[in-house]
Amino acid sequence: MGHPNRPARAARRSDIARQARTTVLLCAALLPTACGSDAPADRSATTPSVTTATSLPSRTATAVLPPASMAPGTSRVSTTPTVDPYAGLPLIDHVEWTETVDGSRLRVYPTTAGRQTTFPGTDERAWQEVRTESPDADTPGMRDQFICHWIWARLVEPNKTSWNLEPWRPAVGYQATVDARCNPGGPER
Questions:
Q1: Predicted TM-score (pTM) of this structure
Q2: What is the Cα–Cα distance from 64 to 78, expressed in whole angstroms?
Q3: What is the CA radius of gyration of the chain?
Q4: Inter-CA distances, 130 with 26, 35, 71, Å
Q5: Strands (DSSP E) found in the chain
Q6: pLDDT band at 188, cuts 50/70/90?
Q7: Interhelix angle for 122-133 vs 140-148, to 10°?
Q8: How distant, in Å, are the alpha carbons of 22, 45, 89, 151 from that of 111?
Q9: pLDDT grade, residue 55 (50/70/90)?
Q10: What average pLDDT does range 156-174 have in this prediction?
């Protein structure tokens, strides 16, 4: 005679596996792969303490495995820092306007602190630095592109030299900007 709970356990394992696959596919779809500059990544910048991929092919998911030192069955808990280790340091090195076939482009060059900080609110502090250096950047679409780069591009290519923000791109809201890999209105050329 079989155990009465076996079919339910198998169904739960199948649901968990399905959820894991869905999560991996969703994360891969959300990774912005076409944001930033056309210049090669700056490899001289300090590498963040978190292990990340510096270049991912388009629409490819990469599994991140826990370090061998972690005991099986344990998980790493991410904590939000309580003190900003980069307080008082600039997050944006400089910005520069360029012209492309599509129109104007603002290239934003983050500092090492801007690449590494995870402190809450630094996205808005960095956006204020961009606005101070270039008041013309203060449009809803440009802000959404910047926040998208701040959150997603730093994960995908943490050492990319610059991030590109284009005022000609439509202001579609933050979520649609993320869905478009930080480039609403068409791919970057």
A1: 0.60
A2: 15
A3: 20
A4: 30, 17, 43
A5: 92-99, 104-110, 163-165
A6: confident
A7: 130
A8: 34, 9, 9, 15
A9: very low
A10: 94
